[in-house]
Amino acid sequence: MRTKRSLPIIVMLAIALVASLFVILPLISLVSYATLGGLMSAFRDPAVQLSMYLTMVAGGMASAISVVLGVPAGYVLARTSGFPSKLLSSILELPIMIPHFVVGIALLIFAPFVFQSLLGVVAVMVFVGFSYTVKAAESSFVEMGAGFERAALTLGASPFRAFWSVSLPLSARSVAGGALLSWARGIGEMGAFLVLAYYVYPVFPLLPTATNPMSIYAYQVYQLEGIRGAASVSLVYISVSLAIFLVTKYVHHWKDLLITSTRI
């Protein structure tokens, strides 16, 4: 009986292992292809550092905008139903499905003034990433239900105060996860950058000199130096992005532990 119960767990564990290998093995191949000297050179290269700085700054700005846009949208989707709600949900999910090269063309036509600028990088990142924040917020508000809000309203709180003081804090963890996914999606973009922000002009004091987003810079290195040079630059980007991702996750983890210990 115990063997039969554990069999589904073993099968799911095997599938999870295959999925992990599908992600890990290409990255191991990338590590094995890059040389140590090339990797150290890429880490010290001011051009690589500037490209990484641009992408991280733009990613942070885009994540903040995604939260401002995505949380209200997710709340509306969670608290409404019917055709208008389904239509709005479909519209907000379109960026996930649209080819990102097309996104670059659409943004260029809609807002040509952001061409080759920091604003262009941020606009692309928001467009391709904020849907993840919307869905994370919507799922959290749906799971939470409206009971806590109704209780706050009966105690005299206004609808906005009930949302701000009750619903939003309870959904903060899910919203933060959605914002992190939006950030990750944004910094990994390339197709729209090829059209709208291939080369980014300086913006003092945020961006002292012109540069490219990380994906574009890695592509340029690939064109000039081949796959070995691109592998070194790519590993730098992956290492920094992974470090930020892990630090953010552990900060949330330790924050939850601190809150739990305080309650106890």
Attribute tags:
mainly alpha, MetI-like fold, 12 helices
Please, could you describe this protein's structure?
The protein starts with a helix and ends with a helix. It has helices at 2-33, 36-44, 46-79, 83-97, 100-110, 118-144, 147-154, 159-170, 172-187, 191-196, 214-225, 227-263. The protein contains 12 helices and no strands. The mean pLDDT is 86.
Question: Summarize this, please?
Answer:
By secondary structure, the chain is an all-alpha fold. The chain is 83% helix and 0% strand.
Give the overall silhouette.
globular
Structural class: mainly alpha
CATH T-level topology: MetI-like fold
Please state the average pLDDT score: 86
Please, what is the CATH homologous superfamily? Answer: MetI-like
Secondary structure layout plus pairing:
Elements (H helix, E strand, L loop, with lengths): L1 H32 L2 H9 L1 H34 L3 H15 L2 H11 L7 H27 L2 H8 L4 H12 L1 H16 L3 H6 L17 H12 L1 H37 L1
